[in-house]
Amino acid sequence: MKLLEAQAVSVFIPAQDGEVEVLAQHCDFIGVLGQGVLRVNVEGGSHEFAVSKGLFQVLNGELNVLSDKISAPKDITLELVNVKIDKVNQKLAEDGVAQEEVRFLKEELQYALAQRKILGAGSS
After folding, report:
1. Which of 34, 57, 86, 107 could make an SS bond with 16 (beta carbons 3.0 to 4.6 A apart)?
2. Longest Cα pair distance anywhere in the chain, in angstroms?
3. Does residue 1 lie within any of the structural domains?
4. Across the chain, what does the average pLDDT equal?
5. Alpha carbon distance 80, 59 (integer Å)
6. Residue 74: pLDDT above 70?
């Protein structure tokens, strides 16, 4: 599914090892997408998306992002995001949660916090 096709001034990507900025005519490369907010700056504004794990590629001046999950502000509500955050935090607080489940829950929490941030509600 294509979410956005635009002539970007810059794109800030949450890479697995830190934020990456891609500018026009950037050299070709591939990176591992982390969880967080992907911001596409265009003339006169920007678009933000919450993304979760995947890959990104710059090839011949074009950026492609492949993500397990992606949300635009129009697709989510603050109420539902806050419910998700509460449920994940409750599960994390339980005793006896398996290590693998803890890792998954922390990833879910990071994604939900990114969703809340693109809604303008911050990450706290």
Report:
1. 34
2. 51
3. no
4. 91
5. 36
6. yes
Residue with tokens 């879910």: 108
Structure tokens at 91: 């599960």
- Residue 120 burial by CB count (10 A; 0-12/13-18/19+): exposed, middle or buried? exposed
CA pair distance 78, 1, nearest whole angstrom = 24
Q: Do 118 and 111 meet the contact criterion of CB atoms below 8 Å apart?
A: no
pLDDT category at 21 given cuts 50, 70, 90 is very high
- At residue 75, φ and ψ (nearest 5 deg) are -95, -5
Task: Give the global pTM.
Answer: 0.85
- Which residue range(s) make up the domain with 23? 8-72
Whether residues 28 and 58 fall in one domain? yes
The tokens describing 16, both together, are 């697995």
Q: How much is the pLDDT for 123?
A: 54
